[in-house]
Amino acid sequence: MNYDELHAIIDSRDIDYEMIVENKIEYSPTVITGVYFLLNGTEIVYVGQAYDVMSRIGFHRDEKKKEFNSYYIVECPKEHLNLVEAHFILKFKSLHNVTVPVQGVFKSRHQLKKIFNANLWQIKKFIRINRLQDYNGYYRLSDFTDFTTSE
Questions:
Q1: 27 within 8 A of 71, measured Cβ to Cβ
Q2: Which of 49, 46, 54 is nearest to 26 (CA)?
Q3: DSSP 3-state assignment of 123?
Q4: Angstrom distance (rounded) from CA 33 to CA 74
Q5: Which tens digit of pLDDT belongs to each residue from 99-111?
Q6: CA distance 59 to 53
Q7: Element at 5 (helix H, strand E)
Q8: Rounded mean pLDDT of 122-142?
Q9: 59 Cα distance to chain centroid
Q10: Would you say 96 and 133 are in contact if contact means Cβ atoms under 8 Å apart?
């Protein structure tokens, strides 16, 4: 899959904060595969993914580590779950998300360092010079097509 296809997947499922809060679901017995948002009032406290979202939300409710009173679901094919979840984790910077799932679009500076066999300062310099958008410590890999380790 190329970067245009990956970006098209994100764009086709992208929604804004207001849509999540206004269309949250209080209960649904249907089996759904997708990315879900746990909300406490109007705050998104967690973004997750599951093949059976309702089962996973039930786990969160029983676990009681994340305080939430409603949720929202974006249906998504299994093969796109990591990409779509990563997009929303970086977009909304929710309280309980500390990592981004492995996927092909968003990479940390340390991941970029390994990918390009470069020094961290070279990665930081390229980011600064090209004024690349920081997605909560992650960057779009496609923004590094012109990256080179030569001075």
A1: no
A2: 54
A3: helix
A4: 8
A5: 888 888 899 999 9
A6: 10
A7: helix 3-13
A8: 92
A9: 21
A10: no
Cα–Cα distance, 77 to 85 (Å, whole number): 12
DSSP H/E element including 8: helix 3-13
- The distance from CA 5 to its chain's CA centroid, rounded to whole angstroms, is 17
List the beta strands (DSSP E) in the chain.
34-40, 43-50, 70-75, 106-108, 138-140
Spatial separation of the C-alpha atoms in residues 106 and 141, rounded to whole Å: 6
Q: Which of 125, 117, 11, 118 is nearest to 74 (CA)?
A: 11
Dihedral-angle region of residue 12 (phi above 0 means left; psi in -120 to 50 means alpha; beta otherwise): alpha
Residue 85 has a CB neighbour count (10 Å cut-off) of 23
What distances in angstroms separate CA 52 from CA 57, 59, 124, 136, one per listed residue?
A: 9, 11, 39, 28
| 78-104 tens-digit pLDDT | 999 999 999 999 999 888 888 888 888
Is pTM beyond 0.85 here?
A: no
- Answer whether 107's CB lies under 8 Å from 137's CB: no
C-alpha to C-alpha distance for 134 and 127, rounded to whole angstroms: 9
User: Alpha-carbon Rg of the chain, whole angstroms?
Assistant: 17
